Amino acid sequence: MATIGVFDSGIGGLTVLSEALRQAPSHHYIYLADSANAPYGEKSSEWVAARSLDLCHWLVREGCQALIIACNTATAEAIANIRHEMPAIPIIGIEPGVKPAVKKSQNHKIGVLATQNTLKSDKFKALLEGLDHDCQLITQAGLGLVPLIESGALDTAETEALLREHLAPMQSAQIDTLVLGCTHYPFLAPLIKKILGPEVEIIDTSEAVVKQLCRKLEEHHLLQSVPPRIIHLYSTLDAEALSAQAKQLIPAAFEQHSVQTSTVFIS
């Protein structure tokens, strides 16, 4: 049995935690939401890199033996340095699912909705340069979406209006596949489907991320079969609010696992 740390700028990484609990329930999980500093997508690259490393150090001090950086922005800005600083620990990042989108798209027109920092990062540019394809990629920064999601405004007129504004260029281009390049955005999937229609396929990389986690756990001999079913939710802002959001967004986790919550200050 391993203790696995999952961190995000806020509640977005709950999408990854939910998938981890489905695929690999036989572990302890520590989820850390840096909600006091969300969103990361509009902060400086230097700040994101330094903060992400600090949070990973904290998770390791709490006993984590593997880490999931469940934030596209933090992965883009920090994962190389984190892996350099912690070479003995399996560290799994997340990136926009452009590769599977290229394979799935029929009309070769793909939308990528991500944070501003993810889209301008060297890691994202390298991802695109490494693709062998003839697809048209329409990228859009989802400015303003993360704060709305963090506040619980998943199906409001304000959120729909902003989402329609961001998706308009993709609709004009007639995309048939949309990549969600932020772990917060899958919570808006019903609203996105309402706007784009059921014919547009939505790509979320949580499943692939957790499969990679399981491979790394096996390599490090950390896989076990007896599920302790314990999750500890930490927030740098308000753990009770995080717990309430988690109960709403991933209720199955609370039905099958013992959940503890704490508010922490991490300098």
From TrEMBL:
Catalysed transformations (reactions): L-glutamate = D-glutamate
Pathway terms, separated by semicolons: Cell wall biogenesis; peptidoglycan biosynthesis
EC nos: 5.1.1.3
Keywords in alphabetical order: Cell shape, Cell wall biogenesis/degradation, Isomerase, Peptidoglycan synthesis
Pfam families named in the record: Asp_Glu_race (PF01177)
Swiss-Prot/TrEMBL GO biological process terms: cell wall organization; peptidoglycan biosynthetic process; regulation of cell shape
Major enzyme class: isomerase
PROSITE patterns the record matches: ASP_GLU_RACEMASE_1 (PS00923), ASP_GLU_RACEMASE_2 (PS00924)
Name of this protein: Glutamate racemase
Species annotation: Polynucleobacter cosmopolitanus
Lineage of source species: Bacteria, Pseudomonadati, Pseudomonadota, Betaproteobacteria, Burkholderiales
